[in-house]
Design brief:
This protein has 21 helices and 21 strands.
Amino acid sequence: MREFLLGLRLLTGSGRGVRARFWLMTLGSSLGVCCLALVLTIPAILDARDGRAADRSPVVHSGKPASGRTLVLERTDPHGSRPFSRVFIARGSRDTPGPPPGISELPSPGEVFVSPALRDQLRREPGLKGLLPGTVKGVIAPSGLTDPTELYAYVGVDRAGLTDPNATRALRSWGKGYSPNPAVDPSTLDILRFTLATLVLLPLGVYLSVCARLSAASRNRRLAALRLLGLSAKGTQRVNAAETVVAALLGAVLGIAEYWLLNQIMARTGLPGLKWYSGDGAPTPGTLALCLLGCPALAWFVGRASARAAAADPLSTRRTAVPRTPRIWGGLVLVTGLGIVTGYSLTGMTSRPADSSGLNALLVPLGVLMTGLGLVLAMPLLSYLLARRLAGVRSLALSLAMRRNEVEPGSAMRVVSGLVLLVFSASLAQGVLVEESQITRSSSPVQEYGVPLAGLSAQQRAELVAIPQLRAHALIMEPPFDQDAAGPRIPARALVATCAQLERIVRHAEGCVEGKVLRLTDPEVTTEPVAPSTIRLRQGDRQVSLRIEVPSQGVLFSGYDVTSVDTPVLYPPSKLPPGAVPVTGTLVLVSASTPGTVRAVLDRIGAIAPTADVDPVGVNVDGLQQIRVIETLLALGMVMGLIVGVAAFLVSATDRAVERRPQVTALALIGARPRFLRLVQCAQVVLPLLVGLVLALATGKLAETAYLVTGGGEVFWDGAGVPLLVTASITVLLFTVGGTLPLVGRRIDPELIRRD
């Protein structure tokens, strides 16, 4: 306790510089704790959403519904790119359960309870009322919703209104032990947690260590003086730890306050695809304990470790002796991690690539973490070896810069490690997006949307085919369901499209003749016998019939894996009667398959025809929502990693420039110009950073490949993201150059040479 009080006494009585450093450490720690609390709370937010979804899930009786029991029917349809869920309830006369969370009673026939977002949507789109038979009686409370923007409704109907006997069940109670549609799949959530830890927690550990070692050289000289005055070695370490612990503890309290304010703001504004209630983001006791105890504990160990040299050998510290050569064990961690991820990456070139089962589920994350940690720990050794290699060149500026890095190789780790980890983590995050994209949507370059023609007005059809993101559209004409139903052959369906439209819908078409009825044949698909059919058309107020024959002349085409174009006949639009529309059929819309385009088209379809039953062929709308949440969380992690990495660079680079003012002043007094000094400062930082970024690009792609190989998808070698990562690395280099140039001041103060 005596050494701890002595450390506080030195903190308050050692001048403005020490106090400024203390507050800088405090503010830096608060930023780190705020980011840490945000990362730790994201899983709690997702768990709260899934918990409320599980609590409202209906538990049903098995078998055929018994008479007198309450019946329930669930329906989920896409409204644009968002799911629109309705729960139809027919109240029974016996064993009636209580209401689900969020409403006070079960709705009676003709009563509807809606979420606040759906209430607002009904005001904007009155056509949605056709999906909600009845009158809105109340609004669902937050306890019955996953988030404030969810489209959800409980609809009261009579028993005759439940016309789907296969999906109707007898209701027992509400609440299951799992969410039927989790915000993020549990297996993906584990990967997401791991990626966020790599994106944020590794740079955060470096940043907090940087904050705890501010002005390390001057502090070590002061501690060496205390040691020479008779203070014990452990006491000297405790004196140094007192300042760092108090700064970290105060910073942790400020960081929690910053996070509370940030949570209140973000809960009201939300993020793309992810909204939550402010209570969901409240820090848990475990998060508070980790932030309020873990950050000071880290500062305690860093403070003791940084003072170990001054306490053990105070004379060498006072005389600025040359430090020891960096140890090789940091490089061993990097080599071990690289060996693991490289081995798994190479299995992707074999006929039996590795999977994520058994020991692989542990080794792959371990290899990625060891690689990222090894990048940080190997930076002093790499900086030292680079400095030894370049120190003898003829360039005076480069030689002087490398000699300084040779003397202080550890400064490279503190300055550039955060930015190096950011590039490494960005590649891993890209791998997660590639893997999730393979799961949630097909690999086809085009995306089809089927919209039933029944219920579409002429104006709606015109607006749908005019959506800007579309590349093609067509009609599929269906014969009546009862036509030749007992015959051995299937009645012919027809695709109404021009040759140009057909070529935009399928992968390849050969032999198409404009204006002729043709047979569509895909050689890779086995077709069943097809019979001629009669299609009913609506032409104004009357109906006409159209005979569809199956011609012998055909078009050879190759379709995509997931498509609705499986009709045997291609029918040119010019042969349809003027203004005629099939009574039974589907409007097929085609766009590019990128997630952003799919969401935009679905949203546009929902705005034009809100009650239409849209079939996004091959796309899981819930999966599309999941990937949007994952993209948002990874983008949030990247932003936090960027903030932490840039903050670590600015703090450590500024601190290093202040620590080296005596050396810079001495060089200026013997004739070195400011431009020369800036070149030296820039070379000291940029060259180790360049080596680190090249390693981060190579190791990051290997880590991404190892993850993709064991993920079981079709894409192992993702080269599409390399230009983006190279551009990001070049941007980091330019930012670093710009950040180091102003650190050499214009004023020369000779007193700095004599100051301790």
